[in-house]
Amino acid sequence: MLSNHFSIPSSGLAPRVVFIMFVVFLQLNALSQNPFREYLLIRSDQDIDAFLLSLDELYRGHSMAKPIVRQIELRTETNRFQLDRQEYTMRLGLNEFGNKHFQEQLNQKNQELLHLEVTAWEAQMLYQRYLNVSRFWELVETDSISETRVKLIDKLRNILALKITDKPAVSKELLQLDIDRAEVSAQRNALASELNALHQITGVSFDRAVTRPHLPQVEAIAQFISDSITTRVQSKTLDAKMQRSSIAHQMRMTEDRQILDFVQFKYSPRSEELFEERASLGIGLRLPAFYNKGRRTAIARADTLHIGLEGIMQQRELELELEMLRREMLSTSVEYKSLDQTINQYANSSIVEKLLTANILEPASVIELAEMLERQKEKQVKRYYQLLRSYLKYLYKSGVMVSHGVLDYFTIPFSQL
Asked: What is the distance in angstroms between the CA of the first residue and the CA of the last residue of the chain?
């Protein structure tokens, strides 16, 4: 009776189980066949894995609980002093007795880190200087192109105005030209304001007679970036911080082994007994803390590993940023070359004159072609300086750009970088 009462009909359960297993199999199979699946997986980093493994082993192998008694002190002092009376005490503490050698090493590491920070700051200032100078020359070239565009727009407007002298209303073409001229003029005013600001910052002259300094060619930058495969970034600061942490731990361990803590002298005159004085000499002793050596070593090791892990993660982020920057520069160089080919087909100064004299096109169409080429030149200038600034950022981020005073990254051969 009980078996019949609690029996479950199997006729409807088996198909459902088979169906669920089939659906799960399809999902897993689709996931395994997904071509983007391998790109979604996070690649393991051997250095980061090594740090994490060391931390796990450290925490599993040592107890991090604080000891009940941290330090035992034995002192010899007299009990004859009356604290309500005047008392003179001279106490010489010996907290870092015997740590002179480690203290010198620690000072050297601190000086090394300070030097690295100053060097990084100088490189940052130099990088900002290069950005300002490159932006300055970009504005100069853009302003020159804008000036040519204004002249072409005025020339085109005069040609169109002659054709509609008999029309009382202003044509749509003339109105559009007036709008274009106003936009270009406003752009020139903004460029002039920024040029003046950069002149105050950099001291670079914006005289038209001053020729632009020699700047790297796009082909040279593209070749340099193609050859510069992003490698693992080595950080001197990270090594110095880890070494400093190790030295600080050795100092603490030396203090734990210190027996003599202080030397003390007390003196108290007795006012009720003339010519009678009381004095005492005391020393402080402590038991060396060998019992928590393993715990303190484990804590110091964990601190050092945390510093290393954080530094390695920052380095990997920088390497990824450099790789993305390199790919961005390659893309910008391709776009620049495409614009350069378009401009070279029509930018010959004699083409416009030939078209005007041969009457192949209307004069207005020829002027429109020339103005279109100026716009292409403006795009080309923007792409070039975008590439140049990315190149400077690549040098700065990768650690190549270090302040050497007269080093010129615009003219130095790429083989020396």
From this structure: 91
